[in-house]
C-alpha cells in the first residue's frame, strides 16, 4: 500500500451539521465555535424552541415529532446538509450515529461523516459478529448462542443452548443497546418467555429482533475504555471509565478512573481495547466496553462506534477535548499530540439527571420545566439540553442534563456533584435528583465497592430520604406552599390585597389546605390573628414561627428558631418547593373533586403519556395478579401494565396505536364476584 502523508489527506470542515438534539448538540456546537466552524442544527416540531437551536448559526426544521419521522430520516438530514452547504455531519450519539448506511450516504453525497468508517460501524453493528471478530483479535469474550429467527426460538434448541452456557443467562439484543431487548434468566422456567419478549422489544426498538444468549456474570463491574484512532493506523486509549451504577441496564453515574483498576489491570484493559480498535482500523472516538468479574477478569461487551454520553469524565481527567479530536481526525489530521502521551490526573464523576419517577419504577415523565437553574460551583461542569420553560416530550430520551464534578480525588468529585445537585432548582417535572444525591452520599458507594447490582441491594426509596433524614422537610414545605398560595391570592385580590388570607378583626376559623407528597397526604391549617401566625401541619405544631416574607415565589420564615428561604414554583395544582432541607413536589388536593374525574374501582391507569403497542387481554377475560394487560411505549421503552389482583376484565377503552395521557384509564379489572 502506498504511503500517504497527513497533509495530502486533510479536508477542511467549514460548516458542521449536527444530526442530533439536546445537550449533545449544544456540546458539539460549543467546540465547533471554538474551532471557528459554522454550525447547523436540526429540530423537530417538539424541539422548535430548544436551546441548541438558538445556539447554532443556522437551523433546519424536520417536520414531525417522532424520531422515525425526523432525526432518523437520513434523507432529510442530507438534504439539510445540501441546502445549508454543510461540509460535515456530526451524528452525536443515538439516532443515526451508528448507522452504517448513513455513513455511506454521507460519503456518496460528498459530506464528511464525523465518525469511524462504514465498515467499522457494520462490523460492530451486530454484537454477534463483533464477538467473533474480537475473539479473533485476542480480546476476551464470553461464550453464547444466537437467536435470529423463529426456528432458532425452538424451545428444545433454546434449552439445550442454555444448558451448555450455564445459568444465569443474559438475553441481549444483537442490534442496539440502552437496556432494550435485554433480560436476565435464572433458570429454564423463565427462558422461553424471556427470549420471546426480548425479541419483540428488540424488533420494536431497533427493527431487528435478533438476540443472543451469553453467560451472565454475577455482581460484575461495567468498565469501558476510551479509544481514539486516525486514518494513519494509530490507535490509542485514554483510560477507563466505571459505569456500574445503572438502572434498567442504563447508566446513571459514571466516573474515571475506576476504583477497581490498578496500573497493571489498566494496562491490560488498554491493550485489549487498542487491539479491538486496530482490528477495526478504527478512526475517531470509540468506546470498548467490558464486563469485569470480582476477580478482575474481564470480557468484551461491545464497541460503541461513536462519542459516549459519559465522555466528559474522560475530558476532565485528561484535559483533552474529545469533540475537537473527532473533528480533526474526520478532516484527515493525525491524532493530536496530546493524545499520544496521556497521564490522567484527579477524579471525575458524572451523573445523568433524568425526568423520571423513581418511586414508580423509573418511568419517564413529561411536562414543562417551569424552573431549571443549575448551581454555578467550582469544579462542576453542566452539559444541559433544557432551560426554564423547556418542554420535556414523550418522544425522546428523558435525560435533562449531565452534571460532572472534578476534584483531586474521588471524595472531592462526589462532594462537588452532590452539592451542585442540592443547589439546583428543578420545578415542573419529577426527576431522579434525590436518588443521585442519595447514592453520592451512601457509604458503600463512597467506598468504591460497587457493581451493576448496586440498586438491587439499595432500595431507591431509602436512598431518596430527604437530606435531614425525616418528614420535617415535607411538612415544612407543605406549610410554605400554603403560605405562598395565600400570598398569591392576596396579591391578586381586588379588596385589601395587603391583608393576609383569612385575616379578620374578630376570631375566626383557621384556613386549611391539603397536599399530596407521593403517597402521603399532608393537612395544613394556618391562622393569622392580630399578633402571630398559628399553624398545624398534620400532628406537628411548630413551637415558634416568624414569617419575614411571603410571595408566590419566595417565602422567608423561621421555624422553631431556624430561618430559611424557600423557592416555590406553581404549575396548576402542583407546587415545587426548594430549600436547604431539600426539594419537594406537592399536589394540592381538591376539596370537592369533579365526579367525572373519579375512576371506576379496578381502573388501570397509564403511568405516563405514550402509545399503546399491545393489548394482551379481551373484555370478559379472567386474569390473575401480575398478568400483562396493556403494553405502552414511551421514550423508546416498552412498559407493561399488569393487573395487581385477580379478576375479570370488564372494560378496555383503548386500542393498539392509541395515544394516551398520563392517568388515562387503560383497562378496568374487577373482582369476579362483583
How does this structure look, described?
The chain is an alpha+beta fold and 674 residues long. The chain has 5 domains: 12-114, Rossmann fold; 143-215, ATP-grasp fold, A domain (Dna Ligase, domain 1, 2-Layer Sandwich), CATH 3.30.1490; 221-463, ATP-grasp fold, B domain (D-amino Acid Aminotransferase, Chain A, domain 1, 2-Layer Sandwich); 472-588, Glycoprotein, Type 4 Pilin, CATH 3.30.700; 596-670, RNA polymerase II/Efflux pump adaptor protein, barrel-sandwich hybrid domain (OB fold (Dihydrolipoamide Acetyltransferase, E2P), Beta Barrel). The protein contains 18 helices and 39 strands. An 8-stranded antiparallel sheet has the order 14-13-10-11-12-15-22-20. Strands 26-25-24-31-30-29-28-27 form an 8-stranded antiparallel sheet, covered by helices on one side. The protein has a 5-stranded parallel sheet with strand order 3-2-1-4-5, with helices on both faces. α5 (100-108) runs antiparallel to α6 (118-125). The radius of gyration is 27 Å and the shape is globular. Mean pLDDT is 91; it is low at 1-8 and 501-506.
Amino acid at each position: 500500500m502506498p504511503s500517504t502523508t497527513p497533509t495530502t489527506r486533510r479536508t477542511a470542515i467549514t460548516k458542521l451539521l449536527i444530526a442530533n438534539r439536546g445537550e449533545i448538540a449544544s456540546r458539539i456546537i460549543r467546540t465547533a465555535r471554538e474551532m471557528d466552524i459554522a454550525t447547523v442544527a436540526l429540530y423537530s416540531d417538539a424541539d422548535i424552541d430548544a436551546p441548541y437551536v438558538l445556539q447554532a448559526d443556522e437551523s433546519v426544521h424536520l417536520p414531525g415529532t417522532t424520531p422515525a419521522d425526523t432525526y432518523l430520516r437520513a434523507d432529510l438530514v442530507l438534504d439539510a446538509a445540501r441546502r445549508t452547504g454543510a461540509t460535515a455531519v456530526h451524528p452525536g450519539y443515538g439516532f443515526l450515529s451508528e448507522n452504517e448506511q448513513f455513513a455511506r450516504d454521507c460519503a456518496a453525497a460528498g459530506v464528511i461523516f464525523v465518525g469511524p468508517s462504514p465498515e467499522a460501524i457494520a462490523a460492530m453493528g451486530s454484537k454477534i459478529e463483533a464477538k467473533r471478530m474480537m475473539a479473533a483479535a485476542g480480546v476476551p469474550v464470553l461464550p453464547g448462542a444466537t437467536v435470529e429467527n423463529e426456528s432458532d426460538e425452538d424451545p428444545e434448541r433454546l434449552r439445550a443452548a442454555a444448558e451448555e452456557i450455564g445459568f444465569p443467562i443474559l438475553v441481549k439484543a444483537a442490534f442496539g443497546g440502552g437496556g432494550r431487548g435485554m433480560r436476565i434468566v435464572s433458570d429454564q422456567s423463565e427462558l422461553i418467555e424471556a427470549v420471546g419478549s426480548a425479541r419483540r422489544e428488540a424488533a420494536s426498538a431497533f427493527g431487528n429482533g435478533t438476540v443472543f444468549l451469553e453467560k451472565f456474570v454475577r455482581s460484575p463491574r461495567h468498565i469501558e475504555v476510551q479509544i481514539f484512532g486516525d486514518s494513519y493506523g494509530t490507535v490509542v486509549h485514554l483510560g477507563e471509565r466505571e459505569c456500574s451504577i445503572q438502572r434498567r441496564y442504563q447508566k446513571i453515574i459514571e466516573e474515571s478512573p475506576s476504583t477497581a483498576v490498578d496500573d497493571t489491570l489498566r494496562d491490560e484493559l488498554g491493550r485489549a481495547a487498542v487491539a479491538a480498535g486496530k482490528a477495526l482500523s478504527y478512526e475517531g472516538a470509540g468506546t470498548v466496553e467490558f464486563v469485569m468479574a470480582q476477580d478482575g477478569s474481564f470480557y468484551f461487551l461491545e464497541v460503541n462506534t461513536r462519542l459516549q454520553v459519559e465522555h466528559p469524565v474522560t475530558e476532565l481527567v485528561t484535559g483533552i477535548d474529545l469533540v475537537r479530536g473527532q473533528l480533526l481526525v474526520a478532516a484527515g489530521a493525525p491524532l493530536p499530540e496530546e493524545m499520544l502521551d496521556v497521564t490522567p490526573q484527579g477524579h471525575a464523576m458524572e451523573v445523568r439527571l433524568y425526568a423520571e419517577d423513581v418511586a414508580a419504577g423509573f418511568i419517564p415523565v413529561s411536562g414543562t420545566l417551569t424552573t431549571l437553574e443549575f448551581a454555578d460551583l467550582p469544579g462542576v461542569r453542566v452539559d444541559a439540553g433544557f432551560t426554564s420553560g423547556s418542554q420535556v416530550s414523550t418522544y425522546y430520551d428523558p435525560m435533562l442534563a449531565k452534571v460532572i464534578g472534578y476534584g483531586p480525588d474521588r471524595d472531592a468529585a462526589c462532594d462537588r456533584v452532590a452539592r451542585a445537585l442540592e443547589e439546583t432548582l428543578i420545578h415542573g417535572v419529577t426527576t431522579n435528583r434525590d436518588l443521585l444525591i442519595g447514592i453520592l452520599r451512601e457509604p458503600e458507594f463512597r467506598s468504591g465497592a460497587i457493581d451493576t447490582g448496586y440498586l438491587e441491594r439499595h432500595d431507591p426509596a431509602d436512598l431518596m430520604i430527604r437530606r435531614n433524614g425525616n418528614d420535617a422537610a415535607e411538612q415544612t414545605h407543605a406549610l410554605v406552599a400554603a403560605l405562598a398560595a395565600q400570598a398569591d391570592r392576596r396579591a391578586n385580590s381586588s379588596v385589601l390585597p395587603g391583608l393576609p388570607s383569612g385575616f379578620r378583626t374578630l376570631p375566626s376559623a383557621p384556613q386549611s389546605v391539603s397536599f399530596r407528597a407521593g403517597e402521603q397526604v399532608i393537612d395544613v391549617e394556618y391562622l393569622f390573628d392580630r399578633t402571630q401566625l398559628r399553624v398545624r401541619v398534620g400532628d406537628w405544631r411548630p413551637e415558634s414561627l416568624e414569617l419575614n416574607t411571603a410571595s408566590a415565589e419566595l417565602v422567608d420564615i423561621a421555624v422553631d428558631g431556624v430561618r430559611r428561604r424557600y423557592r416555590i414554583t406553581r404549575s396548576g395544582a402542583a407546587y415545587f418547593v426548594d430549600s436547604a432541607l431539600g426539594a419537594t413536589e406537592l399536589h394540592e388536593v381538591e376539596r370537592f373533586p369533579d365526579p367525572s374525574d373519579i375512576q371506576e374501582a379496578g381502573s388501570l391507569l397509564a403511568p405516563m403519556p405514550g402509545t399503546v403497542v399491545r393489548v394482551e387481554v379481551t373484555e370478559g377475560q379472567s386474569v390473575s395478579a401480575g398478568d400483562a394487560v396493556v403494553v405502552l411505549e414511551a421514550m423508546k421503552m416498552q412498559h407493561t401494565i399488569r393487573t395487581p389482583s385477580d379478576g375479570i376484565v370488564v372494560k378496555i377503552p383503548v386500542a393498539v396505536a392509541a395515544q394516551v395521557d398520563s392517568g388515562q384509564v387503560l383497562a378496568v379489572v374487577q373482582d369476579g364476584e362483583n
